[in-house]
Each structure stands twice: as C-alpha cells, then as structure tokens.
Amino acid sequence: MPSLPLQLKALADGTRLEIIKMLLNHDLCAGAIASRLGISRAAVSQHMKVLREANLVTEEKRGYWTHYEVDCSELNRVAEELSCLADQGARSKHPCFRFIRNGKFINQENLEKRRVKEMCKCCCEHPEKLKGKPEDCSPEQIKECHGDSGDHPCVSKKEE
C-alpha cells in the first residue's frame, strides 16, 4: 500500500488532478486524455505511471488500448486519512507538548499553574509573536507571554 505522502504528491500536480477529475466521469485511454488536456501521449504516460504507483488509478487492456479509471476506494481512503488529521488538530487545544504525559494531558487544574512557569523551557506559547531568538525577546513580549513574572529565561541572560 503506498504511503499518504506519495499519494498526496501524485495529486499535487495540476495535470494529474485534472486527469483524476476526468477519470471520475469516464474511463479513458491515454489518447483521449492527451487530446482533452492538449498534451502529448508520452506526457500522459508519465502522469499515469505516477498515479498507478500511488494506487490512485487502475488500468485495463482493451484491444490495442489501455483504459484507465480512478480507484475510488483508494481516493476515499486518502480523504479519510486527511479528515482524521484535521480532526486531531481540532481536538488539540494545548500548544505545548510538555503538558502531555503518556499520551494524555496532565491534570487540568495544574495545567494553568505550570503553563507560565514551563512555557519557555520548551518553547514560547506564542512563537509567532517572537522576532528572533528567545534571548531577543522584548520586555513587552516577555510581559505578554509570562505576565509580570521575573522568571523568564531570557531576562537572566540579558542581565548577565
């Protein structure tokens, strides 16, 4: 079974995505695909090789021609895996991995107490607000991230 990254890479090409869309309506031979897309048969052959290796299309010999069709069950599996990834991201509300022990979040009442103290030991809770390295934090960033606490690791480095 091909990996999800291989399948996503196959689908990431615009031409291959157009081929998939066409094949969802009808099974087609390489010549028909080439004429509809305005590309050479050799180019279609290369695209079909990538799609076959990703198990996204199947082929069937009919006389002199090979007809291709989408493997809808495999396409649905890719969609389900992406949906599962999206669901996992929606469930995670804690930005810092320090709060996970044995695959579960630590005690909720201790979470807020530990959040401020441990935040910068692994990384800042709001890294998008930083301008560079942690030691380059401005006093405003430190206050926004940690309140008025003086235990920010960047503060002691600046004072030394």
Compose a concise summary of this entry:
The protein has 160 residues and is mostly helical. It is built from 8 helices and 5 strands, in the order ααβααββαββααα. A 3-stranded antiparallel sheet has the order 1-3-2. Strands 4-5 form a two-stranded antiparallel sheet.
Number of helices: 8
What is the total domain count? 2
Tell me the total number of β-strands.
5
CATH architectural category of the largest domain: Orthogonal Bundle
User: What's the alpha carbon Rg, rounded to whole Å?
Assistant: 26 Å
* CATH class value of the largest domain: Mainly Alpha
Cα(first) to Cα(last) distance is: 56 Å
Average pLDDT for all residues: 76
Q: Identify the CATH homologous superfamily of the largest domain.
A: Winged helix-like DNA-binding domain superfamily/Winged helix DNA-binding domain
Q: What name does the CATH topology of the largest domain carry? A: Arc Repressor Mutant, subunit A
Largest sheet: 3 strands, antiparallel
